[in-house]
Amino acid sequence: MAENCWEFKKCGREPGGSRVAELGECPAATDVTSDGVNGGKNAGRCCWSVAGTLCKGTAQGTYARKLRSCIECDFFELIHEEMGPVESSKTLTDKND
Questions:
Q1: SS3 content of the chain, % helix, strand, coil (to 5)
Q2: pTM score, two decimals?
Q3: Per-residue pLDDT tens for 45-72?
Q4: Concatenated DSSP letters of 21-57
Q5: pLDDT score at 52
Q6: Going by C-beta distance under 8 Å and a sequence separation of 6 or more, which residues neighbour residue 41?
Q7: Is 8 helix (H, G, I), strand (E, B) or coil?
Q8: CA angle at residue 33 from 29 to 34, to 5 degrees?
Q9: How many Å separate Cα 64 from the centre of its chain?
Q10: How far apart are CA 61 and CA 82, in angstroms?
Q11: Closest by alpha carbon to 15, among 28, 27, 25?
Q12: Taking the domains of the chain in order of start, what are their residue ranges?
């Protein structure tokens, strides 16, 4: 399986991670509805589509509010380089509507 955001960023918010007690579990690490998107576990390779993830130590809000900072993120850029135009769980949901 490809590297997930919590592995790349070393945030410690994955289940059982070193910072879960302090910061809580990351919703990207526990979002099973996005499992497999861009080759990741849960939303680990489409974290930009999940509200409540951390960026620069601050919890991010909704998809619309956080997207700008996510597009500038080094992990987002890595996924884009590896996969081409990236998918998110939101994109996949919209396709099924």
A1: 50, 5, 45
A2: 0.80
A3: 999 989 888 877 777 777 777 888 888 8
A4: HHH---HHHH-GGGTTGGG-STTTT-GGGSTT-EETT
A5: 84
A6: 1, 4, 29, 35
A7: helix
A8: 65
A9: 14
A10: 26
A11: 25
A12: 5-96
* Cβ-based neighbours of 26, under 8 Å, separated by 6 or more: 6, 11, 13, 14, 47, 52, 53, 54
Under DSSP, is residue 58 helix (H, G, I), strand (E, B) or coil?
Answer: strand
Look at residues 97, 96, 75, 64 and name the one whose alpha carbon lies nearest to residue 86: 75
Q: Please name which of 84, 82, 79, 59 lies closest in space to residue 69, comparing C-alpha atoms.
A: 59
Which of 74, 63, 52, 89 lies closest to 8, judged by CA? Answer: 74
Side chain identity at 68, as an amino acid letter? R
Amino acid at 93: T
Tell which residue, 67, 4, 77, has the closest CA to residue 35. Answer: 4
